[in-house]
Amino acid sequence: MRILVIGAAGVVGSALVRRFMEMGMDTKCMDVCRFDEAWRLSGVDCRSSYAWKASNDLVRDDLEGVDVVLDCGLGVADRPMGTSSPSYAMAANLSPSLRILEVARRMDPAAITIIYPSSFNTLYGYPPGSTYLPEMPPNPSSVYGWTKAAVESLYMTYHKAHGVSCVVTRVGSGYGFRMRSDEFPAQLALGVLAGREITVRSPQARRLWTYGEDIVDFYARLVVDLRQYVGRTIHCAGNVGDRIVTNMELAGIVAEFGDGRSRIREGPYEPGEMVDGKPVSFEIGGSSPLWKPRFTLEEGMRRTFDWFRENLSRYS
């Protein structure tokens, strides 16, 4: 099996490249970072199969001989432009996916299976207190969530109308090694390590956090038995016990890993984090049989915090 990982220099993409290569799979890589600048791929022998280009520049040659495309190249949720600018969110999410689908359609559409990692928490803006079930349709409450839902529909439309083999996966709020510094768990870890005051955005909004190694395990299982999931939407969101916490509760968990110097205070709410005047809150009532998390929320956060402490120089 030959896999093309788009966004290979990112957090999830780089972890998947490592896992697929450990599994003996022929792995191609693509990202907008030059390989020499892709520090998350340090120690990975993929220079000869690495393409420095954007998804919008993907061409037929990039997909020749490829069996699976895993598009991890879209990660703008925690950057200000990703949550506040409709035009930026549209360009970052819809346009690259359309390019990938169009190139695949013009080849043998059934020969290549495209996996689209969508979002879990940003898709559901149901009234606070709702119980999430896998069969529930998206109901986003933010521009970013709307673009994710739109891309899901785009993939399923290409599957039905053009026979392109597609699988949509809804990933929980991910965290773990090599995170971007602008993502919330990374901000908490870096703030606690520096002993500075931490302002918690959307303080009472609740999220289902998902540890990176559990996400990688999920995709490793998925690609081995991929054909049976074509045309389906499956979920990889949660932790052992499916503990859902407010952002303030998460800040308290991470603060306990430090030396107690950090003060935590509530900040403003971001777009989409309030529904009917109340912070986003939900329970989870189902998942996919492929989803088998190994880590509790506390275990994953502790491992992530320890990694940041050991690699602090990368973020200074």
Spell out the CATH superfamily of the domain at 2-179 and 208-239 and 285-294. NAD(P)-binding Rossmann-like Domain
Using DSSP, what is the number of strands?
Answer: 17
Q: Main beta sheet, described?
A: 7 strands, parallel
- How are the strands of the largest sheet arranged? 3-2-1-4-5-7-12
For the terminal residues, how far apart are their CA atoms? 40 Å
The CATH topology of the domain at 2-179 and 208-239 and 285-294 is given as Rossmann fold
The residue fraction in helices comes out at 25-40%
The CATH first-level class of the domain at 2-179 and 208-239 and 285-294 comes to Alpha Beta
Structural class: alpha/beta
SSE inventory with pairings:
Layout: E1 2-6, H1 11-22, E2 26-31, E3 50-52, H2 60-63, E4 68-71, H3 80-84, H4 86-105, E5 113-119, E6 130-132, H5 143-162, E7 165-171, E8 173-175, H6 184-194, E9 198-200, E10 206-207, E11 209-211, H7 212-224, E12 233-236, E13 245-246, H8 247-255, E14 264-266, E15 274-275, E16 278-279, E17 282-284, H9 297-310
Helix pairs in contact: 1-7, 4-5, 6-8, 6-9
